[in-house]
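Figure 2 data, in text form.
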Amino acid sequence: MKQRSRMSKLHQFSFLFLLLFFLGCGASRQEEAGEKLSEALALRDAGNFNLARIKLDSLLLLYGDLAEESAKARDLLAEININEQERNLAFLDSALQAQEALLQPMLKNFIESDEYGSETILIHRRQRPENSYNRSFLRAHLNTSGDFFISSRYHGTEWIKHNQIRVYYRNQSVSSLEVKEDGFNNRRFEDGEFKWEIVNYKEGKDNGVVDFIAANYDQPLRVQFRGEKFEYIIMERFDREAIRDAYEISFLLKEIARIKKEQARARDAIRQFKQ
């Protein structure tokens, strides 16, 4: 019995000795948390924001009970979020400058005007109503937000009641969808012997006509106005260029608007992280 008692005490002593030994040799939880903080900081300085954030999230999960280390982790997370948004802003500023540099030369033949409706529009100098009221042509419509469509404008001494156009060159052609008369997108009016018909091709109603004109603007494209009767024209070069340029400008304006929204979001995020 005495021998068994001595063996039991020896085992307990050995276990306690080993436990104290491993606890003394192993890093403390504060030290482990500190190492993770140092690793996250190095990742932040290297620009690896996502990896740094993962490291800090792990720290807060495993060592959330350590008040000082957790506070440092949260502060570093806020710094990383601010750094990331500042980097995004620098990229967006560069992208905006590039898009605006592309836009400026394309606007040389367009003017801003609020004389023809309730919104400000961009209109090609050669397509202003005062220059084009007595001719048949295709007009480019563009506003400052980048919304774009075309219309067919017929002028003559008799109604043709057209509701569709076909644009063609040699053996290639594209036809719009039909637009029913509705007093808005397909309307007619007259003044004495002269008749005007205006059809707007919005929301995809051009059916590829715009793309065809933009791709072949340097060719003598022909247009057929199709309705109860038919009218044929050869597009003026400036009309082709007006549609091509307005079409491309619309993409640039929308991209510029998107970049500016992203900039505003980034600035708002920085303000929130600094609070």
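Caption note: Residues 2-103 form one domain.
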